[in-house]
Give the backbone structure.
Amino acid sequence: MRHAKGLAVLLAPLVVAACQHDLTGLNSNPNSPTTAPAGPLFTQAVQSGIGRYYGSFQTLAMSELFAQHIAQIQYVEEDRGHIRPDVIDGLFTGSYTSELEDWQKVIDQGDAAKSPNTSGPARVMQSWELQMMTDIWGDIPYSEAFKGDVAGGALKPKYDAQKDIYYGLLKTVTDAAAAMKPGSTDLGLGTADPLYKGDLGKWQKFANSLHARMAMRLSKVDATKAAAELTAAFSGPGGTFTSNADNAMLAWPGDGIFDNPWAATFATRDDDRMSKTLIDTLVALNDPRLKVYAQPTKADPTKYAGLQNGLDNTTVAPFFNTTSRPGTVFYPGATSYGTFGTVAGKKTPSYLMTYSEVELLKAEAAERGLGGQTNAAGHYNAGVRASMLQWGLTDADADAYLARPGVAYVAGAAGLQQIGLQKWIALFTTGFEAWAEWRRTGNPASIKPGPKMYADVVGIPRRLTYPSQEQSVNSAALNDAISRMGTDTYLTHVWWDK
Amino acid sequence: MPRHFTRLASATAFLLLFAPVAAHAQQATTISGRVMTDGKAPLQGASVTVPTTGLGATTDAEGRYSFTVPTSRLRGPSSLTARRIGFVSRTVSIELTGSAITQDFTLTQSAAQLTGVVVTALSQQREKSTIATSQQEVSGDELNRTKTNSVVSALSGKVSGLQISQSGNMGGTSRIVIRGASSILGQNQPLFIVDGLPVSNQDYSTASASGGRDYGSAIQDINMDDVESVTVLKGPNAAALYGSRASNGAVVITTKTGRGWSRGTHISFTSRFTNDAPSVMPNYQNQYGQGFGGEFNYVDGAGGGTNDGADESWGPKMDGRTTGCVFKHDASGNPIVGQYDTSVGCDQFTGKAMPWMAHPDNVSGFFRSGSTVSNNLTVSQSFDQAAGRLSITRDDIKGIVPNTTLGRTTSALSANATVFEKLDVTGSLQYSQLAGMNRPENGYTEGNPFMTFTWFGRQVDVAALKRQYFNLNSPYGFADGSLYNWNDNYHRNPYWQFYDNAAPDTRDRIVAQVSANYTFTPWLTGLVRGGADNARNTTEEHFAKGNIDRASPAYNGGFTNNTGRLREMNFEGLLTARKTVSFADITANLGGNRRRNDSYNNAFSTNGILVEGIYNLANAGVTPTATNSEFHSAVNSTYGSVIATMKKHWTVEITGRNDWSSTLPKDNASYFYPSVNSSLILSDLFPWITSGQKVSYLKLRGGWARVGSDAGPYQLATVYNGSSRKFGSLALFTLADQSANAQLKPEQTIGSEGGIEAALFSDRVTFDGTYYSKISRNQVLALTTAPATGFSSTIINAGQISNRGFEGTLSARVLRSSTGVSWTSTFNYLRNRNKVDALAPGLAATRLSAQWSSEIQAREGEPYGVLFGYAFLRDSATHKILTANGLPLKDGTKRILGNVNPDWTGGWINEVRYRAWTLNALLDIRRGGQNFSVGNWFGTQSGVLANTLRGREVDWNNPGLVVDGIDKASGKQNTTTVIAEDYNHSLFGINEAGIYNTGFVKLREVQLGWEVPSRFANRVRAQSLNIAFVARNLHTWTDFPNYDPENAANAGNGGQGYDMGALPTLRSIGLNVTIVP
């Protein structure tokens, strides 16, 4: 009997183990939910995407170098043509897996809830970024993207031809502008929208303005489509930007966590100077934006000087103190190597698209007789003035500047040159658009490869090479795209860049 | 029952209070005697038992034992067995009549242990000759010859089938893999068992090639002084009963207890001291100083002077000049290359017109002499029916990097008692406390001293930096409080870095267990065992004002603080039946186990604080980031085994186990895994084998096993991650980058092995070899997917890795002379070939880790862990490098550049004994395998390593060098001379230039021990006194340049294949003294 009791005690755990085997409940994740509200998803995606495309590696070591707004004074590999493969991988991977996917979830939620005021802004933001991506690489995954968690969705999304992507994006922004309903009971994202605080009228304007940017990009390669889409853009519901108050921009909190990306970089790095190409232009035109965009040289506080792009370590060294750093508005105050700017620099907004750009698009459209636009000079003047005001200058500054020879508008081919030059100046900090517009228009002509470019990148890049990781995870689709485009080099032209 | 309850209660009180249970005076038989080796030396630690009663004793330093068998257990004819790991056991018949028995034993050392009692799965003791799987035992003495920081590093070279990589980090992790990696993305570490219960080997290291600190792994908390023996169960076969986590093998640790000592109090004291120094140092060049293009002039160390922002050494020749470190300029201000302007002084951070000269010891002088002091006190008390042991060890380590220390206190209490005749209870409690200060960072970060000295000016006088840092009047250098340094662009004064940026860490660990063993009948016993393993680990990093990477310059510093808690609880019941029927001995086990794992993590950090030096949340200037998470999982199991040994020479063993895991979907949560093994002692079956006197023992064994394995928790549903950070006031949420899989299945490992054990020439030579194959499939993989899916990875069941190989131990008693000299030599060997047979449909490769555009991959058809990256562009016909402007080009398509797996690993142990003297030496060998040495790659590009002198022998750029290759444009042999700086800079991006072989031979351990004769020992009032000279890592033979080829940044899979100039393993030389008063 004693043994039986002992046996029972001993067998108890066996029985317990065998019977209570339904442990599944223990596996529900206590840390993270399986659903999330649209607002925080949208906010996260917005700061992530803008932080990425205005971030230090993507602008200061990539697009702003290509656009020759900026030149590198230390660690000059990128300025000589070598972009780190890791950076290219990270840009491509991060874009798709972070903000683009999060916006997709906002779109899905909005569509499911029949709330176009939720899905609309997400569609506009996704289109804004996808356009930049196709401008960077050419053909990219588009129609089969974002289906990794959808049953039967493509795990190896195909690369769409750039023409198809552009056509798709144009339709998306057209439909989004039409679907959004300002003033309706559909409150959409409300205050979780860090761009416009839930003002759907402004989202419509952004959609139409972006529509115009996309349409103009096709002016050389697909003039008919460009003309039709420009007309549609300028007459879209709600219109385009009409003042700087409409600008699509992200005001950074500047709290030490979410700071203006340039200010965050300049706090600890001193690798960048203003490009000689830009400073020479500003000086020649006596442009008042010079003192906003740039600081005087350390060697001579009365002087502004740019740095030649594409120098090597040896040839760049003498210019450290004799060339201009970017303006104080891009600096956070105390930095690792001295004090530049003020704490307010951390809050300097990142501009996605501005009223100035819209006016300059209208000026170009008018000059080319497109999109129902007229009065190129008027739009040109408005565009230049808007840029001045955007950067804190006054109407008087603009008046004086616009009266100067070389700035004062002259029509015709020279006018197109002026429009391009002024857009390039106005797009300072918006490097990807400046680079794309230089590729489309060749304007300004003063952008030339530097003297010490690496032997395998003998010109200004026309695109980036594809991320190396795609060769491992999506090689068939990637190789299709490469064979369509020719070769996968920096100097291959994308479809619209003819 | 009440009577038993009282006994149980008193036993429990004993366990808690370490107080003796009053022993009843009984008429009893005292058994005593002495155990000697066949070399006539006393044998300490041998166990002498009467198996039928479970009573016994362990011999003391003089080989003496004594114990008493109470009247209640006197049963007439019985047997008395003496055994010790490493010796052939002996059994004699005795008569338990009540009168005292004196019995001496002489044990013969087995060259390798082919027979004798060993610990095996379920921590059960079995006769080794009946074991059908591959396992190997090492005694605590063998492991403790030299002081190591964990059982893993102590095992290096001593067991076949293992690959162990040791760390040079103070208290750092050692990585152990048995028979090759079998999981593509999961753990490849074996399961650790202490006294029957699993314990955590949580990897606390955050180190990787890109940074982090090596906080060691949890197995280090098991004090080596408490280890009685270790058994390594090598294959899934041996470990089938331990379940999923043992599919990579198991390391079964048996700790010392008070049981079996002769009655009374036993005390021993061991003191160890070693002096520690780096075993390998880089070979730096001492001819050219800081700068680019042959020029340097210091103004602000941040680019304001001539190349003074450079942290590279392509500057002027260090010939002692005080002027002329920059070139003359022509009329239009352009430099005249090569003509130095001697009217300008050579300005350095130490002052104007300073001599431009080498400081060859500037790196070695930064490191200090390290030391390890370790003291252990063991007290054990033995009574008739109870025993206890208390051990306390204190280790103090002074690291070789300034201001780095590590202290550890471990204590272990174990007790056992016979509550009444049929019930034995045991309990143990291990408590360890560890406190580290400033464990150096690994990888590519300023906190790694070798990273600082990789981007460096070779003329820099580090002693001046030290003097300046310790100048109390101006601790930060200049009068304005700014830091005093050779470069302010990317570096800080290294002394400031290590003194002002404190990184304390603490770990508390408690491992406790109790068990009760009940004898129902002579053939049936039952065991219940419960235990918990609790650890709490806190790591902090303080970043002082001015920290270049980690604190916002607008604030006065920053900090991070992470606390993790881990708990594993096991509750086990086991019934064991042992029965001998006519021709067979049968043992059957039936058991059940419930395991529960819980972990909790809390972390907070900020990169801006207001008041200097107060690293508290309330002092945050920037909104802190906080995270918390918890993970729970459980596995319930039932298992059983039947072992039958027929006619003492044929054993068949069948096991089965079923697990129910919480981490798998309900329909797949239950999985069963069986094993079958058999062994046959051929030399007993066919006695003619031994008749030729050549073969004295021959055993064959073979087996097959299938082991299942579950997944990590929470992989069944894709989640959204929030953040404590708000964008302004707006909340943030993001979809995880990994998509989950609701249909996961358990992983499966199938192992089969065949082995042979033989003793030759009167046991003078023994051989134990195994051929094995291990195939793991259905692996739970985070498959790297095309990012355009919206996810960077997705969880799937796929893939197969196979490992095939041979492991063997050859041991020989080379010499045993009549004068008392004996020499034994043992060689352990592993040759493993692994291959990724399949990943997922259509997937060629998945990334394990990545650095500087290179990857470590699992690639189909290749060994697990190939280096993949950019190679030199080559001509397809001649395979010569193609050049443009005389410089090599990068091939734009990544390719396989190497394989991180060694061809073979081995250990060669030699032991020579002469009377009271013992000499041991261990060579640790690793052949083959490559890594991507970021330390060498960047050390070459930055011009600090000696190999960068090529091309600048005459002056900074003369005579230059000509790359052996073909000019891409002309197709002709390249003849363009380029300067060394341009050539070495051109290697940036070409990973192939950093691939090196990691093979090595290390003189890992040397110990010369002297058992002081008792007439001397007695003078210091010691019963015995042992003094040993010990050394570790005395010498390294390797082709790997500049750094230590052995590098274990962490115990996981991702740290393999990269080094960023990690700290070398330490060359430790010192003394051990053990006193038994």
Remarks:
- Chain B touches chain A through 115 residues (CB under 8 Å).
